[in-house]
Amino acid sequence: MAEAEKLLYILAGYDEASEEILSGLQNTLYENGFVGTHTRNIPMHITLGSFPTDREEALKMLLQKLSSEVDSFEVTFNHVGIFGGAHVLFAAPDMSDELIALKERCSDSFDWTPHTTFLIDEPDVIFRAAPYVLHEFKPFVGRINSLHLYEFFPTRHILSVTLRDTVLSGKVREMAQEEIPECVQVIRESFRTVADEFGFTAENAPRFTAFATDEGRLQYQYFIEKRPMYVFSQHGRIVGYYSLALTEDGCAELNNLAVLPEFRHRGIGAKLLEDCFRQVRILGRRKLKIGIVEENAVLRQWYESFGFAHTGTVKYDFFPFTCGYMEKELI
Which one in 9, 170, 188, 193 has a CA-CA gap of 20 to 30 Å to 126? Predict the structure, then answer.
């Protein structure tokens, strides 16, 4: 390829768990004889922009700047697809404010569909390969935590940087009695975004968590029911919360897992849930149950990505939504 045809590309990369899922799907294709014409041996990624080669020093400075200013964030993968005249087989994340903002920082071009490529080949090959991915793919929540600068072609890796991970500065711990008022605010503010999204109000859903949670309720759960309660604390501020109810059937029930809206997409919810799994095992319970707003498909898929299975729904007269139920076996 002539020197003038070379271009530089900024790629958004994934954390280890997301990389494992996406590269595993691609490896399924390789194992079944689908090689493709795409570039191999580079991280799974979303391309954010392409640039002339004389921008290399400026782009290196940009990536260093972004690494100190941009937090890593979650992306939800819900579907796979084919485009480019049926030459490309890919997985695509839902569009999010964080993804758009990162794109804006990297390139001013918006002729862009965020995707991670599995295979580039002739249409007949793509159509034969697609069922292998469709059979294995399950929606999951991934995390973008790095940026890479590459030159193509031939392939030349120039620079990789890691985005900020503010989650590492916080921790999950037991809630203290005097923190009940702060936890009430965390729960109400967190669930209020759900209420706003689905049109719940204090009038049509007075028992919904955003409206029904108060200090009296948490005090009853803490002192009378003696529920274990945990918080995610960051720089002295409580930004996440969950509690457990130990049920008579020998299971545990997760209640009110909440993260303040401005602290979402940083992995705090995952940290709380992982701590919940650990606490349930310590308590000697083998099954964890949850109830969610069934219409909240994104939340259901998030729990499914952690191994929860959907077990049924119930429609109550006092809620303007359907209650969905899920559970996870803990060995």
Answer: 9
Which is nearest to 310 in space by CA: 322, 292, 298?
292
pLDDT, position 17: 86
pTM of the model: 0.55
pLDDT in tens, 73-96: 889 999 999 998 999 999 999 998
At the fourth CATH level, the homologous superfamily of domain 3-164 is Cyclic phosphodiesterase (3.90.1140.10)
Residue 124 identity (one-letter amino acid): D
Determine the Cα–Cα distance for residues 30 and 21; give it in Å rounded to an integer: 15
CA distance 103 to 83: 21
- One-letter amino acid at 133 equals V
The letter for the amino acid at 307 is G
85 by DSSP, 3-state: which?
coil
Q: Which residues of the chain have pLDDT under 70?
A: 1-4, 110, 166-169
**Cα 147 from Cα 61, distance rounded (Å):** 12
Q: Indicate the class that CATH gives domain 167-329.
A: alpha beta
Q: Can you give the residue ranges of every domain in the chain?
A: 3-164, 167-329
Dihedral sign computed on CA atoms, order 99, 101, 107, 108: positive
Closest CA relative to residue 242, chosen from 265, 264, 270: 270
Q: Which long-range contacts (CB under 8 A, 24 or more apart) does 123-127 make?
A: 123/85, 123/86, 123/87, 125/34, 125/36, 126/82, 126/86, 126/87, 126/88, 126/89, 127/82, 127/86
The Cα-based distances of 165 to 70, 71, 200, 267 in angstroms read 9, 6, 33, 9
At residue 1, the pLDDT reads 36
Q: Token match 């990162």: residue?
A: 102
